[in-house]
Structures are given as structure tokens and as C-alpha cells.
Design a protein that fits this description.
- This protein has a three-stranded antiparallel β-sheet, with helices on one face.
- The chain is built from twelve helices and three strands.
- It starts with a helix and ends in a 9-residue tail after the last helix.
- The protein folds into two domains: 2-143, Ribonuclease III domain (Ribonuclease iii, N-terminal Endonuclease Domain, Chain A, Orthogonal Bundle); 149-215, Double Stranded RNA Binding Domain.
- The protein is mostly helical.
- Strand 2 (180-187) and strand 3 form a beta hairpin.
- Helix content is 58%, strand content 11%.
Length: 224
């Protein structure tokens, strides 16, 4: 932990916050400790605010472009890229079973968000903003190139007959630390265009959108 904090050049006050940020539910359960879920919740909001502020200052064309860029910058795949740049995965505290399987992308992304929650709690907004500029901003061009199937499907459908799509989680299995979700993407709330599964709801929705895109060639006026 101290190696990571030194690498990030954080003059931390409460080391326990950072340990908690990297404590997965499986490890917490085995060792009767607090896990990183509350810090993840906070860090998610902090990263979204920092991203919004950064994009606002960039003065992009319109709200639609800002929203699209922000969604790309804070999605799971993007968080994993940022985390890889600081080798966060090697510092995660995992339960015995998870150590054998290895940390998946959802765990890494959650820990990255929790880290930002910890910095915010420990050092405040200006310091977490400085960290954002250091370990997120340099890689934004990379993550903006990630394929966002949900956005692509939305644009495809709205270019047709202006109909609506929505995502629904239809199945959830597994223990709290190793969930699996199944999602459907539906046209006008009831016509299933695609299904997908994943370790997170976001991943399942992206895979559902990808399946819908692979089918392609919809004539929305004839779909009732």
C-alpha cells in the first residue's frame, strides 16, 4: 500500500481509508473488515464530477457531445485503463477464491473508484482533482476510442424512426462478490433487440447492445 501511495505522491493522513478502498468484499468477509463498496459509491460521483468539470473547461460544442465524452471516460473499460497505468491490480486485497481466479475488470474498476473516494475523504477536493489530472487526463484520448455499443445503438435507432430503447436486468445470480447479470435491450419497452451477460450491469447492457448491433438492418417502421 505504501508503495502505491508513494507512486501517486499522496501526502496521505489516514492510511486506513486507502486500505479499505482496495479491500474487495471477498477479503473483507474472510477477515471481518469493511469493504470498499461505500468508498466506491463516493468515488464514482467524484470521478464523474471531475470529468464533467474538465470537459466543461474544454468548451466542447454542445451538451450532447459533453455527455457522450463523459460516458466514455467513466465507463468500466476506461477505469480499468487508468488503473492499469498505476498497477492498481497488484495492490487489491482479495479473498482466497478471488486470488485464484484473479481480479476481473469489475473489481479493478470498483477499486479505482474507491481510491478516488478515499483521496477525497482524506485530502479533499483539490488534491483529488490533482490526482485526476495526473492519472486520468493523460489517457482520455485512449478511452474516447473505446467502442460504446449502447451509444452506437442509440444513434442507429434514432436515425431511423425516432423510437425508444431501454435496458432491463432480467437475471442476477451469484454471491455479492461474484455476481453475474443478464440484460435485455428493448425497443419501445417490449420488443427484445438483444440480450447479453456480464459481471456488472453495465457490461451486460453493453453486450446486449452489441448483440442487437450484430443483428442490424432493422426496418423500424415494420417492427410492431
Amino acid at each position: 500500500m505504501k508503495d502505491l501511495l508513494k507512486k501517486l505522491n499522496l501526502l496521505y493522513k489516514d492510511e486506513s481509508l486507502y486500505i479499505q478502498a482496495l479491500t474487495h468484499a471477498s477479503y473483507a468477509h474472510e477477515n471481518n473488515l469493511d469493504n470498499n463498496q461505500k468508498l466506491e459509491f463516493l468515488g464514482d460521483a467524484v470521478i464523474e464530477l471531475l470529468t464533467s468539470d474538465y470537459l466543461y473547461q474544454k468548451d466542447l460544442a454542445d451538451e450532447g457531445e459533453l455527455t457522450k465524452r463523459r460516458a466514455q471516460a467513466v465507463r468500466e473499460e476506461a477505469l480499468v485503463i487508468y488503473a492499469e497505468k498505476i498497477d492498481l491490480k497488484t495492490h487489491l486485497l482479495l479473498g482466497r477464491g478471488e486470488q485464484i481466479r484473479g481480479a476481473n475488470e469489475a473489481m479493478i474498476a470498483d477499486a479505482f473508484e474507491a481510491l478516488f473516494g478515499a483521496v477525497y475523504m482524506d485530502l479533499g477536493y483539490e488534491e483529488v482533482k490533482h490526482l485526476f489530472k495526473k492519472i486520468v487526463v493523460p489517457y482520455l484520448n485512449l478511452v474516447w476510442g473505446i467502442k460504446d455499443y449502447k451509444s452506437t445503438l442509440q444513434e442507429y435507432i434514432q436515425s431511423g424512426d425516432k423510437r425508444n430503447i431501454s435496458y432491463h436486468i432480467t437475471k442476477e445470480t451469484g454471491p455479492s462478490h461474484d455476481k453475474k447479470f443478464v440484460a435485455e435491450v428493448r425497443l419501445d419497452g417490449n420488443i427484445i433487440l438483444g440480450t447479453g451477460s456480464g459481471k456488472t450491469k453495465k457490461e451486460a447492457e453493453q453486450n446486449a447492445a452489441n448483440e442487437a448491433l450484430k443483428k442490424g438492418n432493422y426496418d423500424f417502421k415494420t417492427i410492431i
